[in-house]
UniProtKB/TrEMBL annotation:
<keyword id="KW-0482">Metalloprotease</keyword>
<dbReference type="GO" id="GO:0005615">
    <property type="term" value="C:extracellular space"/>
</dbReference>
<dbReference type="InterPro" id="IPR014782">
    <property type="entry name" value="Peptidase_M1_dom"/>
</dbReference>
<dbReference type="InterPro" id="IPR016024">
    <property type="entry name" value="ARM-type_fold"/>
</dbReference>
<dbReference type="GO" id="GO:0016285">
    <property type="term" value="F:alanyl aminopeptidase activity"/>
</dbReference>
<dbReference type="GO" id="GO:0005737">
    <property type="term" value="C:cytoplasm"/>
</dbReference>
<dbReference type="GO" id="GO:0070006">
    <property type="term" value="F:metalloaminopeptidase activity"/>
</dbReference>
<dbReference type="Pfam" id="PF17900">
    <property type="entry name" value="Peptidase_M1_N"/>
</dbReference>
<comment type="similarity">
    <text>Belongs to the peptidase M1 family.</text>
</comment>
<keyword id="KW-0862">Zinc</keyword>
<dbReference type="InterPro" id="IPR042097">
    <property type="entry name" value="Aminopeptidase_N-like_N_sf"/>
</dbReference>
<keyword id="KW-0732">Signal</keyword>
<dbReference type="InterPro" id="IPR050344">
    <property type="entry name" value="Peptidase_M1_aminopeptidases"/>
</dbReference>
<dbReference type="InterPro" id="IPR011989">
    <property type="entry name" value="ARM-like"/>
</dbReference>
<dbReference type="GO" id="GO:0016020">
    <property type="term" value="C:membrane"/>
</dbReference>
<dbReference type="Pfam" id="PF01433">
    <property type="entry name" value="Peptidase_M1"/>
</dbReference>
<dbReference type="InterPro" id="IPR045357">
    <property type="entry name" value="Aminopeptidase_N-like_N"/>
</dbReference>
């Protein structure tokens, strides 16, 4: 399913690409324990405060949540035909649904449909070719439509119903989650056209059970239906839905009706529609339409964003041995989307901030940004759409594969270092969340199905698949996926079917792997040390995790040993299997090794504390076999950066072919205090001004700013004119700490920007250095800035107001209070709350307002976050 909205939003804050690569923020499997100190403050990520806000959950507590079985199937949905039009002023959908249904096994005389918040006009039974139906009795409680059939039907008998209704999504009670911030299913954007600069659109979001907010259905993932949707819309509006456009007719009233037909069955939550003034950029793959729906202003950069889609279709089809199974593939950018993206069958929907960029902005966004989202949603067309989880408890059968596709694509298109960066980032994401929650991947007990959409189902699941691939080998891994897809196509699935597919392919009983990684909570926490004695490396591995509710893991792992004497020869690799809580291995070695590297391929999903000497880390950095080893060595050596050999190694790493390694090396030189001070500063300035990679240039500026009371204004001023928003933003951030003569005028020239990274930097500058003259800027930008910027901007607004006369603050305070109470995004409400909190020192009377906001907040997670604001 969706790309979680908070993770997705962090991708569009220009600094997020560097954040993923910076050694101070990222962690590797082999060095996570050493990186638990608070990271250097960078441009904030909206997702970052979630982990910090929650209290640790004791792992020894039993799960008391209710059991969540798959929905019992009484009826099979066979086909759904919808004829809909829209009342934009009232934000209603006027619909006629024709459903073809049959009993699943047992005879049935009643049908219960999910239908949320409708006005039901009529329910009719259709027979033969007659257009006139026969009224049926029904009861309706605004959630369930219970229909008394005219007789008892057997499982061999289909029947057809026609339901006329009005869907009123805005009258539904509000719901949602961290991953999906709203659940009303149908969304009108700027319906009256009163919001300047925003198009009029209507779109849907079905997962988890939002489809039943706009058409009557059996809203469960273990249902499948073919589908036909006819959309009557205003002239000039374009439509898109699942399947192929089979007809389009003009109507006498100036409207037109487009009919979209999906000929293979899919789950109801994957049904979609989108209507708006889109520009449609067309592409193809093996003769199938591949279309990109974007705002007209972005039609000329759409292929730069989505243009690798045909290559992805070819790569995934060949890798899986199952050709893309649907009639077409469309990708649609919409405004105010409630998640990052959603894999509707044949037509994925994207939050427009993730995929709509100007040419200048595109230069700042790496493959780890929009391309990872594109790959993620595309892979869902196999894992999620072609084969669908039978229940939300089994969600990782959808999400872990989509998550892992991001690594597969990076590996194929950009090489092993790029894939290793994905591995590092995803592992970091999971280990961060695991500080506050540890759940099994397959969760048959949960409080709310939305709880499944977390970094366990995504990031942990993807890392588990990476270990499985390493264990069985590439040929067996992809042959097993082919078997799984082929055996379960166009149906729903559970974890046992995936295990069986691997066992039938490999001939090995893999219950141990699936049990410890999918069915049990937690992850191994390893303490690794080694010594040399009697011509052998003595390697000790201790599993130190709490094993009351976490297993002692069976861990196949590779250990590499490099010969001694500074030799640059290739290492000897040892394949071990760890099975005990405390285990010692003897590895033959003719001389004391220069380096012993545990999990040298970076495969394990583990929190590893590995004892390594400075000399070993230096050897590792100079002889590293890939990005993960290089960056782990840099992180391990950061505290020794004043050492001449270490700083020289970091400076050498500034020429590494992979940009993320160069970023890590720069971070290793932050606040450098060694003997190479002049040379280091020259290297940093050279990187800030001459590096080809935008993220590296921006990081170099940020590192220069870490040297207090030193003047690098010449570099900052040059950077203010850079072609990269990311670099300009870094220069503004640097100047905010030490503004010089003329800085204010240079910064003021940037005020009208709409770029998120630069807006965030400007708000930081004015939060620290602004005056009453900048108050109107904050008032304006707090109304038109995108949500991912508001989280930071609103807190900075409060900082600014502390420095202006109290009589001038009224509008700003009212605006912050209104956002803190009513904004739909949790992190915007938190940002507004923090802005008000900043004013407490000069306006202690606001304490009552803040208390009232806390008391009336309905989201428990946000209430917990409020308690941490100081």
């Amino acid at each position: 399913m969706k790309y979680p909205v908070l993770i997705a939003l962090s991708l569009v804050l220009g600094a997020s690409a560097s954040a993923n690569a910076q050694g101070g923020r990222g962690t590797t499997a082999t060095n996570h324990a050493a990186q638990r100190k608070a990271p250097e403050k960078k441009a904030p990520e909206p997702a970052a405060f979630y982990t910090a806000a929650a209290a640790p959950v004791p792992n020894w507590l039993p799960n008391t949540n209710p059991l969540q079985p798959s929905a019992t199937v009484l009826h099979d949905l066979v086909d759904t035909k919808l004829d809909v039009r829209f009342d934009w002023a009232r934000q209603w959908l006027l619909g006629t649904a024709t459903l073809t249904v049959r009993p699943h096994f047992y005879p049935q005389s009643q049908l219960v449909l999910d239908a949320k918040g409708f006005d039901v006009k009529s329910v009719e039974l259709l027979s033969g070719s007659s257009k006139k139906g026969r009224d049926l009795k029904y009861s309706y409680d605004k959630k369930k439509l219970t229909i008394a059939l005219d007789r008892t039907y057997q499982r061999t008998e289909q029947y057809q119903l026609r339901i006329q209704y009005v869907a009123k999504p805005n009258e539904l009670p509000r719901g949602g989650s961290e991953a999906i911030t709203d659940d009303k299913g149908l969304y009108f954007i700027n319906p009256l056209g009163t919001e300047k600069g925003k198009p009029r659109q209507v779109w849907t979001q079905g997962e988890t059970e939002g489809s039943s907010c706009w058409f009557p259905t059996i809203d469960r993932p273990n249902q499948r239906m073919t589908q036909e949707i006819s959309l009557t819309v205003e002239g000039g509006q374009k439509t898109v839905s699942n399947g192929l456009l089979v007809s389009s007719r003009r109507n006498p009233d100036g409207t037109h009706t487009d009919t979209w037909k999906l000929s293979q069955p899919h789950a109801p939550y994957l049904a979609m529609l989108a209507v708006g003034n889109f520009a449609v950029v067309s592409d193809t793959w093996r003769g199938k339409p591949v279309d990109y729906y974007v705002d007209p202003a972005y039609q000329y950069t759409a292929k730069q964003v989505f243009g690798n889609t045909p290559e992805m279709l070819e790569f995934f089809s060949k890798k899986l041995g199952v050709d893309y199974p649907w009639e077409k593939y469309a990708q649609v950018a919409v405004h105010d989307f409630v998640s990052g993206a959603m894999e509707n069958t044949t037509a994925s929907t994207f939050q427009q901030q993730l995929v709509q960029f100007t040419a200048r902005e595109l230069a700042d966004v790496s493959y780890a940004g929009f391309e990872s989202v594109v790959a993620h949603e595309l892979f869902h067309q196999w894992f999620g759409d072609y084969v669908t989880t039978e229940s939300w408890s089994n969600l990782p059968l959808n999400e872990s594969f989509a998550d892992y596709s991001e690594l597969l694509w990076a590996e194929h298109k950009y090489g092993p270092d790029a894939a290793a960066l994905v591995q590092q980032t995803k592992l970091r994401n999971y280990l961060q969340e695991a500080q506050t929650k540890r759940e099994p991947l397959i969760r048959y007990r949960y409080a709310n199905r939305e709880d499944m959409f977390d970094r366990h189902s995504y990031d942990k699941g993807g890392r588990v698949l990476h270990m499985l691939r390493s264990y069985v080998g590439d040929d067996a891994f992809f042959a097993s996926l082919n078997r799984y897809l082929t055996q379960n196509k166009l149906s729903s699935s559970e974890i046992a079917k995936l295990r069986i597919a691997f066992e039938e392919t490999t001939g090995e009983d893999l219950l141990w792997f699936f049990d410890q990684w999918f069915m049990q909570r937690g992850h191994p926490e390893l303490r690794v040390s080694h010594s040399y004695e009697n011509n052998a490396v003595v390697l000790r591995v201790q599993q130190v995790q709490d094993t009351l509710f976490q297993p002692v893991y069976r861990l196949p792992v590779a250990v590499a040993v490099w010969g001694g004497g500074g030799s640059s020869n290739q290492p000897t690799e040892h394949r071990l299997v760890i099975t005990k809580a405390d285990q010692t291995f003897r590895l033959p070695a003719g001389q004391r090794p220069a380096l012993v590297k545990f999990d040298n391929e970076g495969i394990l999903l583990a929190d590893i504390d590995e004892t390594q000497s400075t000399e070993e880390l230096q050897f590792q950095l100079s002889h590293a076999q890939g990005y993960l080893q290089r960056v782990q060595a840099i992180e391990g050596l950061r505290s020794k950066s004043a050492d001449l050999l270490v700083s020289s190694a970091f400076r050498n790493a500034l020429t590494d072919p992979f940009w993320a390694t160069r970023v890590a090396a720069l971070e290793g030189l932050r606040r450098y205090r060694g003997a190479e001070g002049t040379a280091v500063r020259k290297d940093l300035q050279r990187a800030a001004l001459s590096e080809k990679n935008n993220t590296v240039r921006a990081t170099a500026l940020n590192v220069l700013a870490s040297f207090p009371n030193e003047d690098f204004n010449e570099a900052y001023n040059v950077a203010l004119k850079d072609s990269s928003y990311l670099v300009v933003g870094a220069a503004v951030e640097a100047l905010s700490k030490a503004p010089a003569a003329g800085t204010r005028a240079q910064v003021a020239a940037l005020q009208s920007t709409r770029n998120p990274a630069l807006l965030t930097a400007l708000s930081n500058y004015y939060g620290l250095n602004g005056t009453l003259d900048d108050y109107p800027w904050f008032l304006q930008r707090s109304q038109d800035a995108p949500p991912e910027v508001l989280y930071v901007l609103l807190e900075n607004f409060g900082k600014l107001m502390n420095r202006i006369p109290p009589v001038e603050r009224e509008k700003g305070i009212q605006h912050l209070e209104n956002l803190a109470r009513t904004h739909p995004q949790l992190y915007v409400r938190l940002g507004a709350y923090k802005g008000l909190h900043e004013l407490l020192t000069s306006m202690p009377t606001l304490k009552t307002t803040l208390q009232d906001i806390r008391n009336k907040e309905k989201d428990n997670d946000l209430k917990a976050m409020y308690s941490l604001v100081q």
